[in-house]
TrEMBL record:
InterPro entries reported for this sequence: RHH_dom (IPR027373), RHH_sf (IPR038268)
Gene3D superfamilies to which the protein is assigned, alphabetical: protein bp1543 (1.10.3990.20)
Pfam families, alphabetized: RHH_4 (PF13467)
Domain annotation Ribbon-helix-helix: ranges: 5-67
Organism: Mesorhizobium plurifarium
Official protein name in the record: Ribbon-helix-helix domain-containing protein
């Protein structure tokens, strides 16, 4: 099993961090590239749509899972 790594990003002018396993992080990078977005822009988009009772790391994992279930297609 992949180790969880903590990463930081600046979204909407403030630093925030999230913890993800490398495969999830790699997929986030691929999704951002596919959508011609920076990683920070993609994380900000996911952050804006998550429910406030879900943490950012979980929201990112769920986004990657939904993307994978669609066959890697962006919405």
């Amino acid at each position: 099993m992949a180790a969880v790594e903590k990463r930081s990003v600046t979204i909407r002018g403030h630093r925030t961090s999230f913890s993800l396993e490398q495969p999830f992080y790699d997929d986030l990078i691929a999704i951002a590239a596919q959508r011609s977005l920076s990683l920070a822009a993609l994380v900000a988009e996911i952050d804006e749509t998550r429910t406030r009772d879900a943490n950012l790391s979980s929201a990112l994992r769920l986004y990657v899972l939904a993307w994978a279930k669609r066959g890697g297609a962006t919405s």
